Amino acid sequence: MQKITQIYGIRAVLEAINSEEPVDKVFIQRGLKGDLFKELEHVLRKNQINVSYVPVEKLNRLTKNNHQGVVANISPIAFYDLEALVEQVMETKKLPLFLLLDQLSDVRNFGAIIRTAECTGVDGIIIQKKGSAPVTADTIKTSAGAAFKVPIAKVDHIKDAIYYLQASGIQVISATEKTDHTVYDVSFKIPSAIVMGAEDRGISPSIIKASDRTAKLPLVGEIESLNVSVACGVFLYEALRQRMKS
Questions:
Q1: What are the boundaries of each domain within the chain?
Q2: In what order do the strands lie in the sheet with 6-8?
Q3: Looking at residue 147, what DSSP letter applies?
Q4: Any idea which architecture 6-74 has in CATH?
Q5: What is the distance between the alpha carbons of residues 74 and 70, in angstroms, rounded to a whole number?
Q6: Which helix (H) or strand (E) holds 160?
Q7: For a Cys-Cys bond, which of 17, 50, 91, 143 suits 147, CB 3.0-4.6 Å?
Q8: Type and span of the H or E element at 174
Q9: How many other CB atoms sit within 10 Å of the CB of residue 216?
């Protein structure tokens, strides 16, 4: 039986959250009011669930059913606990490789990154609960099914995840153009984690500051940046190249 990936209606969404279903993102009609709506907002804030306030036309496109102003995406995958994931990987892998995504918002970019991560041996992907692209049917399709193979952990804050990784003996490298170092200056022959930023803003300054190293890709053309999924692929394959040589 195919897993339900979308629910609609305020009561149904409340019930799903209270039953600890993996609600990934909730779309709410702008201007919605009422006591039940206030209860939903409270529960969403308490559980730090990603929310978008949208016009009713958006909800009508998402579902043909009576949505009552609320539509929620249910993740088709189960998310991992960060500490349990890191502990498991550190026990079984000599050179673990993690990937952190700071507020990446496009589901197709997310899917493409997951696919490349699976191909390059990434041990886990870490995303933030709020503001990150949800795992949708489009994510699964773009990942070519890799989303079912690469563990994905959700955390309250990416910065806290960085501190935990560092305390576990893992170096953290932020991919940013705001540095003089290139990816080819970085040694990936130790346990490592790579941070990729949002499509429009890049990595948050506080996260760059918390990282052990920064690195960029050399660009010789006139365009100043690469698509984030392409840039991520270059970083991951450089890590794989170094590790294959050793």
A1: 6-74, 82-245
A2: 6-8, 70-74, 23-29, 50-54
A3: G
A4: 2-Layer Sandwich (3.30)
A5: 13
A6: helix 158-167
A7: 143
A8: strand 171-175
A9: 19
pTM, two decimals, is: 0.84
Chain mean position to CA 6: 19
The model's pLDDT over 179-234, given as tens digits with 9 standing for 90+, comes to 999 999 999 999 999 999 988 888 999 999 999 999 999 998 888 788 999 999 99
Enter the tokens of residue 2. 């195919």
Is residue 110 exposed (0-12), middle (13-18) or buried (19+ Cβ within 10 Å)?
buried
What pLDDT is stored for residue 1 in this prediction?
A: 34
Q: Which amino acid is at 118?
A: E
**Domain 82-245 grouped into CATH 3.40.50.720:** no
3-state secondary structure of 59: helix
- What whole-number distance in Å separates Cα of residue 130 and Cα of residue 100? 14
Pairing of strands 70-74, 6-8: antiparallel
Tally the residues of the chain.
246
Distance CA 246, CA 243 (A): 5
Residue 159, amino acid: K
